[in-house]
Phosphate-specific transport system accessory protein PhoU
Amino acid sequence: MEHTVKAFDEDITRLRGLIAEMGGLAELGISEALSALVSGDEELARRVVARDKKLDALEAEVDALAVRVLALRAPMADDLREIVAALKISGVVERIGDYAKNIAKRIGKIDGRAKFEPLTLLPAMGEIAAEMVHDVLTAFAARDPVLALEVIERDEKVDAFYDSIFRNLVSHMVENPSTISTAAQLLFVARNIERIGDHATNVAEMVHYSATGTYPREIER
Amino acid sequence: MEHTVKAFDEDITRLRGLIAEMGGLAELGISEALSALVSGDEELARRVVARDKKLDALEAEVDALAVRVLALRAPMADDLREIVAALKISGVVERIGDYAKNIAKRIGKIDGRAKFEPLTLLPAMGEIAAEMVHDVLTAFAARDPVLALEVIERDEKVDAFYDSIFRNLVSHMVENPSTISTAAQLLFVARNIERIGDHATNVAEMVHYSATGTYPREIER
């Protein structure tokens, strides 16, 4: 029995490690995609796109390990909830990586960078979203429902940035019709970041559930 | 033993039923959101938004049942893979519902509907995406990897629609700066449908995995 418990703890530790690694890559993807956006560095953008495959592979590894743990150890109660949370969270973090990749893919389509005010707002917005991703995975590793709630609250800031950038870009389009195509790309970047915030919030709800057995009160998104 | 197997089969049947119900609601959400878009029916749009809560509740129900099955029946091999697939798929279908809700929420912000060509293209695009959602859940229920592959292939059509609508809307914006704000909303609608196709493709990959133990060859998205 002692042996089994130890083996289970090792599996859980490995599972947490894999998810932390996924989170680190997703965070890096977000911040590098936004630096590439501001600097126009297409080489960096390509690296972000290429790195996304690593996230896909890690998700498959988390799923395979989780399935193995479920099959071999038949965990109960809190342990079972944690494995289930890991399975769901790996899927969401992989999708957060997709958004970073989507941002990186737009960089080749963006012209006349320096003229857009949102180019200073988007990195600030992205930083909040990347921190949400970071903190929610810290909350998962520490089973910390209070930190999970803090992440959920921060999503409002991301939404406020989004609204402001949206209005700014639409005005910009009206005044400079020749830049509409680029402005549309920046709109999608803003939207991608906004979705990253939503997904981090989603994960925070799962972490709260995994740590306490209850979902946080419904938050309107 | 016979009793346990029977109880397990009942649980799996219920799990499939819940996921089929989620899929049906998501499909309905997509098609109603797009009818509301074309007709400008804000009451219908509000119903789509309200119905999304039902999807959230069903996801929680799938998760709770899957956890119970894992805890009580400790399924192995194919059965375990199916439960894990159900856990991941419920999360994705819930997000597909979010996209339908997002489309519905934009309807109040859209003016001068009749003048936009994409208003005839978006419902056609949405229909393909809704069918992908329908068929991939049929594939899940039937453990049919061939149908899952067909769904994956259909995503190219959705992407082609998206590219065409994007170009159309940007040209429209350039020619009619006064309608930029509405055109931007339609761009997001197109993007939401495109993401629904991506998510259906994601589910199709999980169904393929659940049915065969292997992922389909990597498809560049």
